[in-house]
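[Meeting: bench + compute handoff]

Bench side (C.D.) handed over the final construct sequence. Compute side (W.E.) agreed to return the predicted structure before the next meeting so the bench team could plan truncations. Sequence as handed over:
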Amino acid sequence: MMNPIEAAETASNALTKQGKIIESIDQFYADDCVFIEPDGSRRNSLKDQRAHLQGFFGTLKSFDGAVFRGQALGDNMSMSEWSFNFTGGDGKPFTWNEVFVRQWQNGKIISEKYYTA
């Protein structure tokens, strides 16, 4: 039987794999969630992250899939590793490898930090 964080992480990952990233953040992230990029820049709300992602997806020709590499769970935290495949607005395909480290509280993600390779 899955614990609540594992169940929520698994459900969030299922949406992400389908390219439903906006839907995932709407469902699983706290309104005041902090999003931290590899360069240390931050967005301090779900609203700001949603706008950021919509802007990014608007620059793409297509979302071509996501490969889930695995996850790890800890005390009120989770990590998942992904490879995302996109076609840029210029028509060139590219892959983005990323690890998300998430802090959970009351069933919602309150912090998400990204690491890229």
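W.E. noted at the follow-up: The beta strands are 29-36, 42-43, 60-74, 77-88, 93-105, 108-116. C.D. will use this when planning the next construct.
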